[in-house]
Specification:
223 residues, two-stranded antiparallel ribbon, 48% helix, alpha+beta, 6 helices, 15% strand, 4-stranded mixed β-sheet, 60s Ribosomal Protein L30, Chain: A
């Protein structure tokens, strides 16, 4: 009888341990496959990542060369000193020298309308922020096949803090745009402007993100 009792106790303990393990696995899987801050689940993220890798490895050289020789883009790559939209010189951009003469449409989005702070003290896109970006994109006539610049702004902290925060904000919004609207990375750029917008933007200071769609010259015929 003693051995039977010991066996039953061991079996009960093993069952309890198995139940705990099962609950832990279930919790881990729920966390892993839950939606992220961009509203995408793990399966979508994996599929998008594989697609991005395939596009990057297969088309990067051709896309870059096509972009550099396209008549639309040729003007700001000429005498550029940089290779793509992520290398935009901040001071030249702020002075309006990069897309000079081209038509620019702009949507301003204050930081509170886009971001919340997570448990780690980091800013992330909120559900309302994703909705506000969708609305802002809907105001543009066209976002595909033309430059889309995401300007990041921050007036919080020291100059270095503003620089880091403004770039992170622009990066968060660009990632969402690429996931949600499938805009090509080659056509999107981010620029960290701290708290000072370009001189012709209509604001002397800002805290948040501005989307800028760059179009052709006003008198340039459509093709």
């Amino acid at each position: 009888m003693g051995k039977v009792d010991d066996t039953l106790t061991s079996a009960e303990s093993a069952t309890h341990s198995l139940d705990q393990a099962s609950q832990q696995i279930n919790t881990t899987l729920k966390g892993a496959f839950a939606e992220n801050q961009y509203g995408e689940d793990a399966g979508t993220n994996l599929q998008q990542s594989l697609t991005n890798i395939d596009q990057a490895t297969g088309n990067l050289a051709d896309d870059t060369e096509a972009l550099k020789h396209d008549c639309f883009f040729r003007g700001f790559f000429k005498h550029r000193g940089y290779d793509d939209l992520d290398d935009l010189p901040v001071e030249q951009y702020r002075a309006g020298q990069i897309f000079e003469g081209l038509v620019k449409s702009r949507q301003w989005m204050p930081a509170p309308s886009l971001f919340i702070t997570n448990g780690h003290g980091e800013e992330v896109l909120s559900a309302q922020g994703r909705h506000n970006i969708d609305v802002a994109i809907g105001q543009f006539n066209e976002i595909y096949g033309r430059p889309l610049i995401i300007e990041g702004y921050s007036s919080i902290g020291s100059a270095s803090d503003q620089l880091l925060r403004s770039r992170r904000r622009a990066t968060l919004v660009r990632t969402y745009l690429q996931l949600r609207f499938h805009v090509l990375p080659k056509n999107t750029g981010i620029v960290a402007l701290m708290s000072t917008p370009p001189g012709n933007a209509g604001k002397s200071t800002f805290d948040g993100v501005s989307l800028v769609s760059v179009g052709k010259r006003r008198n340039e015929p459509k093709k």
